[in-house]
Amino acid sequence: MAAVAARELRDGEVVFVGIGLPNLACNLARATHAPNLVLIYESGAVGAVPERLPVSIGDPALVTGSLMVCGMADVFQLFLQNGRIEVGFLGGAQVDRYGNINTTMIGTYERPAVRLPGSGGAAEIAVHAQRTLIVAKLNPRAFPERVDFVTSPGQRCGARSRRELGMPGAGPVKVITDKGVLEADAATGEMVLAALYPDVTADDLQAGVGWPLARRERLGAVTPPTETELRVLREVLDPRKLYLKA
Amino acid sequence: MRDAVARFVQDGDTVVIEGFTHLICFAAGHEIIRQGRRDLTLARLTPDLIYDQMIAAGCARKLVFSWAGNPGVGSLHAFRRAVERKSAGTLEIEEYSHFGMVARFSAGAARLPFWPLRNYMGTDLPTVNPRIQSVTCPYTGEALATVPALNPDVTIVHAQRADRAGNTQMWGLVGVQKEAAFASERVIVVVEELVEEQVIRSDPNRTVIPGFIVSAVVAEPWGAHPSYAQGYYDRDNDFYVAWESISRDADKLARYLDEFVYGVPDRAGYLKKQPGLAARLKANERLSQGVNYGF
Description:
The complex is a heterodimer of chains A (246) and B (295).
Chain A: H1 2-7, E1 14-17, H2 21-31, E2 38-41, E3 45-46, E4 68-69, H3 72-80, E5 87-90, E6 94-95, E7 101-102, E8 105-107, E9 112-115, H4 122-128, E10 131-135, E11 156-157, E12 160-161, H5 162-165, E13 172-176, E14 180-184, E15 191-196, H6 202-207, E16 215-221, H7 227-237
Parallel strand pairs in A: 1-2, 1-5, 5-10, 10-13, 15-16
Antiparallel strand pairs in A: 3-4, 6-7, 8-9, 11-12, 13-14, 14-15
Helix pairs in contact in A: 2-7
Chain B: H1 2-8, E1 14-17, H2 26-34, E2 40-43, H3 48-56, E3 60-65, H4 77-83, E4 92-95, H5 98-109, E5 114-117, H6 125-128, E6 133-136, E7 143-148, E8 154-162, E9 168-169, H7 177-183, E10 186-194, H8 197-201, E11 207-209, E12 216-219, H9 237-248, H10 250-262, H11 267-272, H12 277-281
Parallel strand pairs in B: 1-2, 1-8, 2-3, 3-4, 8-10, 10-12
Antiparallel strand pairs in B: 5-7, 6-7, 8-9, 9-11
Helix pairs in contact in B: 2-3, 3-4, 5-7, 9-10
């Protein structure tokens, strides 16, 4: 997943980095095809070059050697709301048919079965980043038809489009999963099957999604991680396997 | 610290201990717990372990926040027990996103009643928080979201250094501390080192909070642990990981508070119980190049 996400990033882009797999993906891209990627963390580090894998989004290694450190008012107003962020990464406990994300709670708000951390910067990243990439493992409970709570808006809210609602960014354009990649359909806003990992069938993808999954006429084939990508991930970026499993 | 908390933190206050991962003043939180403050409204972007501890200790009536987790690890379980109604007592919550909380402090610091932001369209946050409103721009007609000013009774800021008058310098991640301090009625500054005024004057661009808005200055080395102070000590990630199992069990959490908060008189006592911290976490040296302030 980290390698597939990394390939979505183009050299020189300005990326708002989240912790975990997105962080691995961004640093992998920087170590391979995108050395000029500008990593911005919501904690205020701009142009970060972390020498160790940050455990948190506010790790001191994000500051050491970075291009700029600014306050969070600047992060959200001068960078994000200003439209300077080209790519945002989001994950969540639930992702629905239209790419709406829930990181707030499962159940009802007043008496949640599971209380999750909440938005953090995710709501505004989903509104403002020029495009967002969702990274999440497939599982029908994690991919319901409708999320219990919209923390971060996707392509449709009710029946209304992002443009009607006045959102500047394009929203979630891709969902990178552990079995394949979904893409937002331009006409309907729905997340549809676009590409499969090796040895995975469209039925495998459908089994992990709680709505009837539409698919592109021609499905792409995701190339497995190269030796270089694996070596950088396993030996350089995450040797202690904080985020890489198996 | 004892005097500063006794004098400037009262029952029922809105209390902000800010710091985004960096410079979170655990020493002040522990002193508030020891002094048994009650009915506090605790506000912060990321409640972090310190507010989880204060919620467990019964200090909080209400929590105002935007991301309540243990970064990179998992949950704040005392918070979750309270919100999922699995523990006694009630905890009111008022929830925003990070941008919303930052905007609330910006409004408070500028002494404006609210702050506009282009946000929250399509999200369910305004449906559960009626204080997120909207306004029509008088110039363009655009509908903009608004959040109300947040003006705490007291804000506690940890920093690397200050002089005796409270002129405070910090570097590394500076979060929203400047806005929170200027928004607040009272400000307590806690520092790793007290320095001479001349040190502050030699590098004025690094000053974030001027002494004349500060109510009290406390020198408390390692006062941010298990959070960190850039250039002084690293974040104690092992403790953040350990908090998952400590906080998951209410009895274990209570025993932690008994030993490391109630069981010590002050931060020096807390440090004495953990003699290996400096060897494990002391920062290495990465000095900046100086600049010429001459004219």
